Amino acid sequence: MSPLYKYLTIVLLFCGCYSSEKSAEQVFHYNESSGIASMDPAFAKSQSVMWAVHQVFNTLVEVDSQLKIVPSLASRWEISEDKTTYRFILRNDVFFHDDACFPGGKGRRMVAADAAYSLQRIMSSETVSPGAWIFNNKVDSATPFRVINDSTFELKLLRPYNPILGILSMQYCSIVPREAVEFYKNDFRRHPIGTGPFRFMAWEEGQAMILKKNPRYFERDAAGRQLPYLDGVKISFNDSKATEFLLFRQKKLDFINDIDASFKDEVLTKKGELRNDWVNEIRLQTHPYLNIEYFGILFDTNNVVLRNSPLRQKKVRQAINYGFDREKMVLYLRNSLGTPAQAGFVPGGLPSFDSTKVKGYKFNPQLARQLVKEADIDPRTPAIKLLTIPIYSDIASYIARQMVEIGLNVEVEVIQKSLLLELTSNSRALFFRGSWIADYPDAENYLSVFYSKNPAPPNYTRFKSAAFDALFERAIRETNDSIRYSLYQQADQVMINEAPVVPLWYDLVVRLVQPKVKGFQPNGLNLLELRHVRFEGN
Question: pTM score, two decimals?
Answer without folding.
Answer: 0.87
